């Protein structure tokens, strides 16, 4: 019974502190399925105990009730199917490239093979102690002739449709690439779909909360968590403000560095909808996409306004070129 009480206390504390206290980011990284698995195991373990069965069942049920929305299970996948995409549907490919073309794999052929109309790509930078921009736009243009390209910091949007305007929601006020990398985390591009239709696409990569390469016994580890949290807040607020002021069709997609178990995911603007019910898997996860490693977390998301209809939504493997799976959506506007 004590264990069940401790777990219920933990879940309650998580609901209160996640997204509110930067130290709690250490707890935020727990695999979301634990919010359902643990109370079920506690209840099952109490079955042989006649005296403790009832109180444990009550405590475990409460923990399950509070924790189920945080667990990441995609129950609608059990009965929902993909829709047939109508002619003219727009194909959008979103992917955290894990440092642009850094593993020597067939990077550009992989991108071309998606046959997408719009590419939302994150981490257009080199891997190193200091982030460094990649100067590869000529090669990108050669791979996608006729496509429009917008770049802000580490974000690249490639579109078959003309780009009416493109800008980061937060502009760096510092000179140099490092300021752009740290501040320009949401790139908005307004795409001219033709027929008087415009789709605002937000390419997003929120700062990761924890640096696994630092020791928790050093001050740099804790400063990094605090500083990254301070960077995430303004990005969420900028997204909310811009979406609120944009009454046209909207798609927001990218690497949120946010799992279903983090309260930060509730900061997504309320007028946006989550099409995850279309995903053909009961437990959708995008991280980590490496052979032999557990894939317990979903960090990549897509959200649309009500006037955007999503016909198909799925994740796909990176072929070992990234630690993130990609997102692919087929949608229509108007």
What labels would you give this structure?
334 residues, alpha+beta, six-stranded mixed beta sheet, globular
Strand tally is 14
Work out the oligomeric state of the chains in this entry.
Answer: single chain
The secondary-structure class comes to alpha+beta
What are the segments in which pLDDT stays under 50 over at least 5 consecutive residues? none
CATH class of the largest domain: Alpha Beta
Q: Enter the CATH topology name of the largest domain.
A: Deoxyribonuclease I, Chain A
Global shape: globular
CATH architecture of the largest domain: 4-Layer Sandwich
Question: Quick one: CATH superfamily of the largest domain?
Answer: Endonuclease/exonuclease/phosphatase
Q: Output mean pLDDT.
A: 92
Query: What is the rounded Rg?
Result: 21 Å
Order of helical and strand elements: HHHHEHEEEHEEEHEEHEEEEE
Percent in helix? 25-40%
Which band does the percent of strand residues land in? 15-25%
Main β-sheet, spatial strand arrangement: 5-6-2-1-14-13
Main pleated-sheet profile: 6 strands, mixed
Whole-Å distance between the termini?
A: 55 Å
Instruction: Tell me the number of structural domains.
Output: 2
Q: Provide a count of the helices.
A: 8
Transmembrane segments: 34-49, 56-79
Pfam families: Exo_endo_phos
Organism: Dactylosporangium salmoneum
GO molecular function, one term: endonuclease activity
């Amino acid at each position: 019974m004590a264990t069940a009480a401790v777990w219920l206390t933990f879940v309650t504390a998580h609901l209160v502190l996640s997204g509110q206290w930067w130290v709690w980011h250490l707890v935020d990284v727990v695999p979301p399925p634990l919010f359902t698995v643990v109370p079920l195991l506690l209840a099952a373990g109490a079955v042989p105990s006649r005296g403790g069965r009832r109180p444990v069942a009550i405590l475990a049920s409460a923990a399950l009730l509070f924790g189920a929305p945080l667990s990441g299970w995609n129950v609608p996948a059990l009965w929902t199917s993909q829709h047939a995409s109508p002619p003219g549907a727009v194909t959008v490919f979103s992917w955290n490239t894990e440092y642009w073309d850094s593993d020597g794999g067939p990077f550009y052929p992989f991108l071309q093979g998606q046959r997408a109309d719009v590419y939302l790509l994150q981490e257009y930078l080199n891997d190193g102690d200091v982030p460094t921009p990649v100067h590869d736009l000529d090669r990108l243009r050669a791979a996608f002739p006729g496509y429009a390209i917008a770049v802000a910091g580490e974000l690249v949007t490639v579109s078959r449709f003309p780009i009416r305007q493109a800008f980061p929601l937060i502009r760096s006020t510092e000179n140099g690439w490092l300021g752009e990398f740290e501040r320009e985390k949401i790139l908005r591009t307004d795409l001219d779909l033709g027929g008087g239709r415009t789709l605002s696409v937000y390419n997003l990569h929120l700062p990761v909360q924890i640096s696994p390469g630092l020791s928790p016994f050093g001050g740099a580890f804790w400063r990094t968590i605090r500083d990254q949290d301070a960077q995430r807040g303004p990005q969420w607020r900028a997204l909310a403000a811009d979406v609120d002021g944009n009454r046209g069709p909207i798609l927001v997609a990218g690497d949120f560095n946010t799992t279903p178990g983090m309260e930060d995911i509730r900061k997504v603007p309320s007028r946006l909808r989550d099409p995850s019910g279309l995903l053909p898997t009961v437990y959708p996860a995008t991280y980590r996409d490496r052979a032999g490693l557990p894939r317990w977390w979903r960090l990549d998301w897509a959200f649309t306004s009500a006037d955007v209809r999503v016909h198909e939504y799925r994740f796909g493997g990176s072929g070992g070129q990234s630690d993130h799976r990609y997102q692919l959506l087929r949608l229509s506007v108007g």
